[in-house]
Amino acid sequence: MKVPVIKKLVETYSLEELTLAEASIAEEETPAIEIPGDDEGEQLTHAFAAMWIRQQMEDNGDDFKTALRAYTQMVRGSIS
Question: pTM score > 0.70 for this model?
Answer without folding.
Answer: yes
